[in-house]
Amino acid sequence: MTAFFALTTSLLWGLADFGGGLLTRRAPALTVVVVSQGLAAVVLGVIVVATGGWSEAGPRLWFAFAAGLVGPVALFSFYKALALGPMGVVSPLATLSVAIPVGVGLFLGERPGLLQVAGIAVAVTGVVLAGGPQLRGAPVQRRTILLTLVSAAGFGTVFALITEASTTVTGLFLALFVQRLTSVVTGGGALWLSVRRGAPALPRGGLARSALPALGFVGLADVAANGTYSIAAQHGPVTVAAVLASLYPVVTALAARGFLSERLRAIQAAGAGLALVGTLLLATG
């Protein structure tokens, strides 16, 4: 069960990152974050009302609130790093996010077996290679590296926080709603400040209505990924769930290959293969 939900998480996050990357070519990153998260919050609000999720309100929602504060910072830093530096540097570095939930799992007493340790090492190596690491070329700005590390720390923190935000399915809906509502308020405030400083909130000609379904998909896929990761981490070792969920760069690379006809470099193909081997080791270990 853990492997299934964690792999579903990587699929959803990979598709959300792919969609978000395409959208940021047409609109400012903050706008993409706020609108996509806002659409997801509306859908979650309807689900919470329909399922009576308000009855699950309790102290655990503070974890969801904290995740909602950290999430927009991580997303914006990631998109900004992609805009400033080569994806071949940013994408592999961002996978360092897995270190935080794995570290939490080890701190809480989880001790993966030898086969699982091998699977973790192989899978993480595969994910880094699948990101297409840039080994040569112009030096990367320190700001790009810093933003990437901030996004990695943020994503890893959200991993850890959302796991603690609920213990039931209806409670999970409420936790995700609180997280997204907080994200919208936080991101909206940042967007307002950027507009005050002269940055555009919308692309020239405004935001096309045809972009709304894509924005909704990105927001809902991100929400669903948080939910499936929470379930995976609650029903199995966090160390395994976190590593399997971190395979999303492989999904993003394959989506670019399928939808944009981008050719996978040899190192990316090798990384995807290693990630698959690592997944098998983790699932059977």
From TrEMBL:
One Pfam family this sequence matches: EamA
UniProt superkingdom: Bacteria
TM annotation in the entry: 6-23, 30-55, 61-82, 89-108, 114-132, 144-163, 169-193, 214-232, 238-259, 266-284
Family: Belongs to the EamA transporter family.
Organism: Streptomyces fuscichromogenes
Domain EamA: 3-130, 144-283
Name of the protein this chain belongs to: Membrane protein
InterPro entries linked to this entry: EamA_dom, EmrE-like
Keyword Protein biosynthesis: no
Keyword annotations of the record: Membrane, Transmembrane, Transmembrane helix
CC annotations in GO: membrane
